[in-house]
Hints:
Number of helices: 1
Radius of gyration: 16 Å
Shape: globular
Largest sheet: 6 strands, antiparallel, barrel
Distance between the termini: 53 Å
Helix content: 10-25%
Order of helices and strands: HEEEEEEEEEEE
Strand order of the largest sheet: 1-3-4-5-6-11
Number of strands: 11
Amino acid sequence: MIRSFSIVFRPLLALAAVLTLFALSGVGGTSADSGARTFKYLLGTGPLCAHGPDECPDIAMAHNGDTIDIAGSGMLSIHPDSISGGGTFTHHTAAGPVSGTWAANRLLGFHEFGCTPDNRCGGHVLMNVTLSVGGSPVHNAILQFDCVIGKPPAGAQEGVRLAIQDALNFNHKVSGGTVLILQ
């Protein structure tokens, strides 16, 4: 009975803890800026790959040693809040890799860290995504990415995290590049 509880509720408790920390840290919700803004986002793909071999794809690790590679792009808007886009993922397990696609569904939180004169911006983004394998949806998840351009909070680290509902949480950022581009 205890093992069953642990398997079913541990991921939900971890997700609740992550969301609570984001709420308490002030990084949830949208930026305090009241103006409408639109950004293109890149996660471990495109021109980021020219910056070095550790930039593409973004890689995160779960507590059991599994890793997940994530790459993709899309658009993010604030006031009104919206997000679109998607990409690919590969979950590396001891039994072998599983690959699929991810699609952005809903913007859950955004905090901008600032922009450079060429419109490259940093920020913290939380989005709800659907993971699909072979064209069939298999999991809902929360994808977090952080780009440390601008003035990020102390301890902020470039990369992605993925909390998969009723499955693994890839909470350790291993490597990868991300960017927001003001449109």
